[in-house]
What does this fold into?
Amino acid sequence: MKPEDLRSDCRHVRWDRPCAPHKLRGRTCGGCPEYDQVRHRVLMVKLAATGDVLRTTAFLPAIHATWPGARVTWVTRPAAAGLFRGNPFVDEVLVTDDAVTAARLQTEDFDVVLCPDADPDAAALAAMARAKERRGFVRDSVGRVVPLGSGAEAWLAMGVDDVKKRQNRETYQTLVARVLGFDPGQVTEPVLEPSPAEVASAREFVHGLGARGPLVGLNTGAGGRWEYKRWTDAHQQTFLRLCADAGMSVLLLGGPEEVQRHRELLAASAGLPVYDGGNRNSYGRFAALIDQCRAVVTSDSLAVHVAAARKVPAVVLFGPTSLHEIELYGRGRKLAPELDCLCCYLPRCDRQPHCQALIEPKDVLTAVQECLALPVS
It folds into this structure.
């Protein structure tokens, strides 16, 4: 093929290797029936924690509805890059801490740059990128984060004012739809697609456990930023016993930080149908394990948004973060104690008993049983 015959505006083009249709099916560029023209180039800049990145993938259908034929490039931190493996709505992922990312943003032209956060680093990248249009936030020459529009102004005001944050009653999806200029009705569940191999592996693993009764996932951690986002060890142990008494099995879910906690929970529940789902799963395998659960119990963490992506009911336990911002898509329950100081966003506090200690295991079990009564999606 001659260089002039290359249809360079096709989504499948890979400049340093043959494209997938050519490699897999022998297609040639000139008359290829799989030609997919890129009509818009969209850049999303979303850094933050992995759960926050995942819930923002709910805006991808709105992006494609607004800009048909869009090629979507997403900039994020390295830890979140694996979330996009198999995502059909994102063509390319660029990571921070990579000089190539900065070079790409300074040399390529985008139709629009979307930056939904007033995060100074994300706003700086959004300002640096070459684009005809910008939505959300940028950073100016003296280091200020600048909101672009009334939706962004409201989101910024809420982020710097504890009172406004506590008074809010709208979901993140509704608030950020206004930031980015989308119709909230276009926002769907987050997108996280396990591979067929991950699905098969998780199904085989769970089948091999010999679990009896409905399988409930217990996500045991909550990251390290807010100490009291995590349910107490004592309540988790009690919950495991209550589940066993109610004829349920429990799969422990967590990351590398929860290895010791899982050992302690397994020891405390010896002889009960409690199983360890592992602590070093890929995002896809983690999602595939949640697929195997009838319901998931979790704090306000990544597992909430994975459950939403996989349409699995979630019972979510809240304390220092906003329960109103979290969207469960009609599947699940939110539990929080009656405290005036909820949604404080403090890393830790001196209140005893603290918020998560006031969420009783029997109430969580009742919420799980309500979820099990829901029709299976």
About this structure: Residues 189 and 201 are 24 Å apart (CA to CA).
